[in-house]
């Protein structure tokens, strides 16, 4: 099987429910599994071994993937306020004019490149531009997931970090691609 076969998200969810990991590519030296979907780009899960994903992680990934649209809605709520001209988050400037934007309109500007299930804090981003912490009470390190976006023709990437416990967005990093 080719390394970059893109599956339907529904198929990945079905395989995970059946505990069939045949769609995943396991990198035993690195201890991670990856699968590619049309809707999410790359789905990366760390700390796996022996071509198996631990039950706790399967349940966590399933819960997130089954609520993927809700997670995207949170992401788009934040991304709609990004001011590309000044490279900053400006909710007061754009609040009124962007209230009616739909997911389809955001998809024209932002492309999802992946969903990552891993330790979400303390990762080095070489070209980090800004880091925003939305949840001040969130622990500095948590096992969670991130959704990564690129921004059309702008050389920017956005990593939106969520807690797996309640699927709440708690931090955002922007970086130069």
Task: Annotate the secondary structure layout.
Blueprint: E1 6-7, H1 9-17, E2 25-27, E3 32-37, E4 41-46, H2 55-66, H3 68-79, E5 82-83, E6 88-89, H4 91-98, H5 103-109, E7 110-119, E8 128-133, E9 143-151, E10 156-163, E11 169-176
Parallel strand pairs: 1-3, 4-7
Antiparallel strand pairs: 2-3, 3-4, 5-6, 7-9, 8-11, 9-10, 10-11
Helix pairs in contact: 1-2
Describe the structure.
By secondary structure, the chain is of the alpha+beta class. Helices cover 27% and strands 35% of the residues. The strands form 2 sheets. Strands 1, 2, 3, 4, 7, 8, 9, 10 and 11 form a 9-stranded mixed β-sheet that branches. Strand 3 and strand 4 (41-46) form a beta hairpin. Helix 1 packs antiparallel against helix 2 (55-66). The longest helix has 12 residues, at 55-66. The chain is elongated, with a radius of gyration of 16 Å.
Give a short synopsis of this structure.
By secondary structure, the chain is α+β, with helices and mostly antiparallel strands.
Question: Which tags fit this structure?
Answer:
single chain, 177 residues, alpha+beta, nine-stranded mixed beta sheet, two-stranded antiparallel ribbon, elongated
What is the string of SSEs from the N terminus onward?
EHEEEHHEEHHEEEEE
Overall morphology: elongated
SSE-based structural type: alpha+beta
Euclidean distance between termini CA atoms = 30 Å
The radius of gyration computed from the alpha-carbon positions, rounded to a whole number of angstroms, is 16 Å
